[in-house]
Design a protein that fits this description.
- The protein is of the alpha/beta class and 319 residues long.
- Helix 1 packs across helix 3.
Length: 319
């Protein structure tokens, strides 16, 4: 059934440290996405509210993964409220997680073709969605009405916890769970074994992963995607090199980088010019923008935290 951990587990090798890091911090980012989704005037992560009068999104499922243990971990990892550089409250950097989720939801809506004026030609609208390093993403549950098949890849223990919470709340996961280290293993073969059709248009969500991987691993993933699919779109987020290397001049950014590192979730990879990576792997850019620009476009934040200038979102498709 959808949501059940598949037989791929028997073929799984030990997960890379990177994939473990992504999944372990996923509950914290889920917390921040849940608490930062509200209207700007009531949003705890907005520094200077924009004119937007509605929430970034609605999601009643994220809260299912929040308990006292998660709250305590969040307390340890997020910065203490204080004024940061350029007159911004340092907790406003946490707005990047809900903004990232909003961007993915918008792009998903576009590539599926549910918008009235979709950017994707009808013949290229996706019928399959793959979430790499999915963690506690609840998008498949939220978007059951979409005419697509969802596949998620992550560690077996993540899916067991996720499935247990869904079962306790009588929720159908609406996704096929594949417990696999997608960096060490050929995830394309695993997906095909579970029914994915590489000849059909596909959307790949790669959220909150690239900063934990080394550059060769990122290139390997992109090359596998390009070689496998006839029509594919991929969205991922990435840090600047200066942010990863603590050269951004933003004290609170350095602080949270240290906290993630202490939690064994070290940021190791960033890009100052993502077009170089795209060109190297044979992709063209559909979209690329910083969190700061995206937040202003949505009229959420008038005075974005400086970290959001060093954190970007992009969507690519093969040349």
């Amino acid at each position: 059934m959808q949501g059940e951990v598949t037989d791929t587990q028997s073929k799984e090798v030990k997960s890379t440290d990177a994939q473990s890091k992504v999944s372990d911090t996923g509950l914290c980012t889920n917390f921040w996405k849940h608490h930062g989704k509200g209207v700007p005037s009531e949003n705890p992560y907005v520094n200077e509210p924009g004119k937007r009068e509605k929430p970034l999104y609605k999601n009643q499922f994220m809260s299912l993964f929040i308990n006292e243990e998660v709250i305590e971990t969040v307390r340890q990892m997020q910065p203490e409220p204080c004024m940061d550089v350029e007159g911004t409250n340092n907790t406003s950097m946490l707005l990047t997680d809900p903004l990232r989720h909003k961007y993915i939801l918008q792009t998903l809506k576009d590539v599926v073709g549910v918008k009235k004026k979709a950017l994707i030609p009808k013949e290229n609208r996706v019928t399959q969605v793959v979430i790499l390093g999915s963690g506690y993403d609840t998008t498949p549950v939220r978007k059951k009405a979409y005419p697509v098949k969802f596949f998620e890849l992550d560690r077996a223990e993540v899916f067991k916890r996720k499935q247990r919470i869904y079962d306790d709340n009588n929720i159908e996961p609406n996704a096929i769970y594949i417990p696999l280290d997608y960096v060490k293993n050929n995830f394309i073969d695993a997906l095909k074994e579970q029914g994915l059709d590489v000849t059909q248009p596909t959307y790949i969500i790669w959220e909150g992963n690239t900063m934990y991987l080394d550059k060769p691993s990122v290139i390997q993933v992109l090359n596998r995607i390009k070689e496998a699919f006839l029509t594919v779109y991929i969205t991922f987020d990435y840090f600047s090199e200066s942010l990863v290397n603590k050269r951004s001049g933003i004290p609170s950014a350095d602080d949270i980088t240290d906290k993630f590192s202490q939690a064994k979730a070290q940021f190791t990879n960033g890009y100052d010019d993502i077009s170089i990576l795209a060109e190297e792997c044979g992709f063209r850019m559909i979209d690329n923008q910083t969190m700061a620009v995206f937040g202003k476009t949505l009229q959420v934040e008038e005075n974005p935290h400086p970290l959001s200038e060093n954190y970007s979102l992009c969507t690519l498709t093969p040349e």
